[in-house]
Write a structure and sequence with these properties.
With 564 residues, this protein is mostly beta strands. The chain contains eight helices and 33 strands.
Length: 564
């Protein structure tokens, strides 16, 4: 891998043939670059040792990127040299070209298998998978994990990729397509990967003297950076960095990828600080909006306003106003104002004011004022004590002691029945047909039920499209409610009614038999055509000519009647 790192502006100059004096481009990489949107990005990738072409010096920009190739890109960027045991993956050959890179990517917490026994190294990597591994590699966590919804097909983003897609969207690193879609399940080309990396970095630097004063910078050198540093942008410290962190001001993200280090963050001013490495210890009180932990065996003793655990394992010993656990394992020993658990496993050995459990599990060995459980199959356990538990979901496990349990559970549409009645047949075209949806309520005791009523949305669908709806349809506790819909009988005859409450739905359908013909078919015209036999033949009762009725001598006149 090249030791000299180039700024993006230099890479752009190379595309114009203005900076060949750098001495590495034309001689070492005699590639032909496409003359389109990907040109600058591909030059940047080649000049920084990220991409290598095949034996014919072809970068194959339009070919889908494989998972092994993506691992190699990230390992080369970060200069990772860790080794993970890949023997459990039956589809990884020990002699394949990618073994070292893939092993390092897994050891670095960037790549996971498709299953316990499959890595699919030669399979195409999807767009959402690419964004996920990029965010793991460079510590990009979303501020708003729901930002993926800005794409028109955001609902198709896999759960594991939602935070990554949101993080990339927030930083304007991925733009989607002209029609507003992201196409997260589509494979991604090598040119598109180069463009993502090009968007991600303004400079890749290995010498402190080359540090710019602005942009998104990846520092891959080992020499210490200056004690006083101001960067208008983001700084990612690669695995080789072997220096302290001084009085640094970074206006956006400061990302630490240096394993086994102890960092005093007291002199740091940044919007967000992320530690995405192994065995690091963080101390001090930085001037940062949040601290993100995303690595194995991390220890943090930093009193901050907001702390996010994205994955891996972390031990948090300081007081924090807000902690959000989105994945991994978190053990918390300091006092917490508000704790939100959306995934992973959390152990709280201290005191928290309000805790919200929407996914994963919470083992409470300390005390909590209020715990709100809204995620299905969540677990609340431990030897601690809760003042009040508010449960607004089904199938939650509660084995911790408490003073008060409210909301019991949100039954949703459990026990509700929905039926649809309509005439069996319609005999006149244009006739108005009235259908009645009948709903019988279940037992509603949850916090979103007022006076035994659950407010739902009732939709009528005609030909597969919603043609009418009532967003304030009350389903009453144990009672029956009805709603009618009238339509003009025509060629569309399939009617469906749908009851919606949150993510739950009930449906009932009815097919109306239309027993009439169009006006054009009401008049039947009859015509007789005269024909005669040109030779002796027979008259048959069937088209197959197997049932003979009588003989027809030559010149016999036959009349054929047609109805139209």
């Amino acid at each position: 891998m090249m030791k000299k790192r180039l700024l993006r502006s230099t890479a752009f100059a190379l595309t114009l043939g203005l900076a060949l004096q750098v001495g590495v481009s034309a001689a070492k990489y005699p590639y032909v670059y496409p003359d389109d949107w990907s040109r600058n990005a591909l030059v940047f990738a080649v000049e920084n040792g990220i991409f290598q072409g095949n034996t014919n010096h072809d970068l194959e920009p339009k070919r889908s990127t494989t998972r092994a190739e993506m691992a190699a890109v990230l390992v080369r960027l970060l200069e990772l040299d860790g080794k993970a045991d890949l023997s459990s993956y039956q589809d990884v050959s020990t002699t394949a070209w990618y073994v070292r890179e893939l092993s390092a990517a897994v050891a670095g917490g960037i790549f996971n298998g498709m299953s316990a026994t499959s890595m699919a190294p030669n399979g195409s990597i999807t767009r959402e998978q690419t964004m996920t591994v990029l965010c793991r590699a460079f510590g990009l966590a979303a501020w708003d994990p729901q930002a993926y919804g800005s794409y028109s097909d955001g609902a198709s983003v896999s759960n594991y990729a939602k935070d990554a897609v949101s993080a990339m969207q927030e930083r304007d690193l991925v733009h989607g397509y002209g029609d507003g879609t992201l196409k997260p399940k589509n494979s991604i080309t090598r040119a598109e990967v180069a463009q993502l990396v090009y968007n991600l970095f303004d400079a890749i630097v290995d010498d402190p003297k080359e540090m710019p004063d602005s942009g998104r910078v990846l520092y891959v050198g080992s020499k210490p950076l200056p004690n006083e540093l101001v960067l208008n942008g983001s700084l990612i410290l690669g695995a080789s960095y072997d220096g302290p962190i001084g009085k640094w001001t970074v206006t956006d993200d400061l990302v630490l990828r240096c394993p086994g280090k102890s960092f005093d963050l007291s002199g740091v001013t940044a919007k967000s600080i992320t530690c995405t490495t192994t065995g690091a210890s963080l101390t001090g009180t930085p001037n940062a909006d949040r601290l993100v932990l995303w690595g194995e065996n991390l220890r943090a003793n930093c009193p901050v306003a907001q702390l996010v655990v994205m994955g891996g394992s972390a031990q948090i010993n300081s007081a924090v106003e807000q902690i959000s656990v989105r994945g991994g394992h978190a053990q918390i020993g300091g006092t917490v104002g508000t704790l939100t658990v959306t995934g992973g496993d959390t152990v709280l050995n201290s005191t928290v004011g309000d805790a919200y459990l929407t996914g994963g599990s919470l083992m409470l060995n300390g005390t909590a004022k209020i715990v709100t459980i809204s995620g299905e199959n969540c677990k609340l356990s431990g030897i601690g004590h809760v003042g009040e538990i508010i449960q607004s979901c089904q199938n939650a496990s509660i084995t911790v002691s408490y003073d008060k349990l409210t909301g019991s559970k949100r039954n949703g549409l459990q026990g509700v029945s929905l039926s649809l009645s309509a005439p069996d047949a319609v005999t006149k075209e244009g006739q108005q047909v009235t259908l009645t949806a009948t709903c019988k309520g279940g037992s509603f005791t949850g916090p979103d039920c007022v006076g035994g009523k659950l407010i739902c949305t009732l939709q009528w669908l005609h030909g597969g499209k919603v043609v009418a709806e009532d967003k304030q349809f009350p389903v009453c506790d144990g009672a029956t409610a009805s709603h009618t819909f009238t339509f003009q009988a025509n060629s569309a005859k399939d009617i469906k009614v749908r009851l919606v409450n949150g993510s739950e739905t009930l449906e009932a359908s009815r097919t109306v038999d239309l027993q009439f013909h169009s006006k054009e078919l009401n008049t039947v015209r009859t015509a007789k055509v005269e024909a005669w036999a040109h030779t002796d033949t027979y008259l048959y009762a069937d088209q197959a000519g197997t049932k003979r009725l009588r003989a027809l001598p030559k010149n016999t006149v036959v009349y054929v009647e047609f109805n139209a």
